[in-house]
Amino acid sequence: MKNGSRFPEKEIWKVAYQTLEGLSKLHEQNIIHRDIKAANIFFHNGDAKIGDLNVAKHLKDAFTVTQTGTPYYASPEVWNEEPYNYKSDIWSLGCVLYEMCMLKPPFRAENAEGLYKKIQTGVYDKISSIYTKALSDFIGKCLTLDQKKRSTAKELLSLPVMLELKDNISVLDSC
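Above: the chain's sequence. Below: its structure in token form.
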């Protein structure tokens, strides 16, 4: 891909689907990744794979409070030093997918305090109109401010758009 050119939508959907499948498997094992970001999604034979589990944590309880990860991708609950769970990984995935669309993170600031404030509002620029409303809505589900209302990996994988991707993933392999 040329520097500065946008990712094709089908490639973004493929990354979303395959990353969610990986997160779902981790979450089923009570493991939270805690550092989902563009640099930790690797491609092997055209497939997206989650890597760098250095700060991953096995959850013995439903929540953890240790602040870790990359600030631009950290969920509001991590920034607030509140208990968080697997849904924090979903927020981070939403940031990655947004970045694939817009070639920049959804929340940007000159300093940590400014970034904190932007993330706490949950307000980000709309994705480019070259992408479908379905993709914009999907990213919005990931970037839901209230973690209680944010979808799990399993819930996102059960959406009609994801079920269709599952049935047609071989078509996307030409990405």
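Residues 12 and 76 are 24 Å apart (CA to CA).
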